[in-house]
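Support request from a user on the community tier.

User writes: "When I paste my structure tokens into the form, the page sometimes reloads and wipes my input. The last time it worked, I copied everything first. Here is what I submitted, just in case something in the input itself triggers the reload:"
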């Protein structure tokens, strides 16, 4: 079963936007990778999966502790998350897509990813229209309980250092420029 992994561009969705992608013939090894406009993205084989990757620049991570009796399937989860994150978000919670990590960390807290709902929805709709419906949406980087890791990213016009791991406190982004030093 093949897997098409698409990195969502920072710009709003459009027919001319370029999408970085990788196609795996078996979901484990890399077949081809390139950049193509939406209409020219490859199609995974029958029964294959399309995975959308949200770039780190579009996410913020927040650690929360859910009240007793509120779990992942609770109908009260969204309003409770909005209340817990109200003072930490830079935007109105109603304008954000909130995604709770699938499991609690070692201390019983959960990590919540927040991104612009309109931006995400426009990309997912464009992929759906292009006959590449997304089966999973995943973050480019997520908080980890493992060892600390450093990544240097060279995004056009904004090189940055990303730190993840147990002692990083989630996902930490730092600009990599002479003026930031």
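"...and here is what came back when it finally went through:"
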């Amino acid at each position: 079963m093949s897997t098409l992994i698409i990195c969502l561009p920072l710009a709003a969705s459009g027919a001319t936007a370029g999408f970085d992608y990788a196609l795996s013939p078996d979901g484990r090894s890399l077949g081809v990778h390139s950049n193509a406009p939406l209409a020219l993205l490859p199609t995974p084989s029958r029964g294959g999966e399309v995975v959308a990757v949200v770039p780190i620049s579009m996410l913020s991570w927040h650690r929360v502790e859910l009240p007793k009796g509120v779990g992942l399937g609770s109908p009260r989860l969204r309003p409770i998350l909005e209340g817990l994150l109200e003072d930490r978000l830079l935007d109105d919670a109603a304008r954000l897509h909130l995604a709770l990590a699938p499991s609690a960390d070692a201390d019983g807290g959960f990590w919540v990813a927040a991104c612009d709902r309109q931006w995400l929805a426009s990309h997912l709709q464009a992929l759906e229209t292009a006959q590449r419906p997304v089966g999973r949406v995943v973050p480019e980087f997520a908080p980890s309980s493992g060892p600390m890791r450093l990544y240097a990213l060279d995004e056009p016009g904004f090189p940055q250092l990303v730190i993840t791991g147990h002692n990083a406190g989630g996902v930490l982004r730092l600009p990599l420029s002479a003026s930031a030093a």
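Agent notes: The reload is a front-end session timeout and is unrelated to the input. The chain is about 10% helix and 35% strand. The two ends are 46 Å apart (CA to CA). Escalated to web team.
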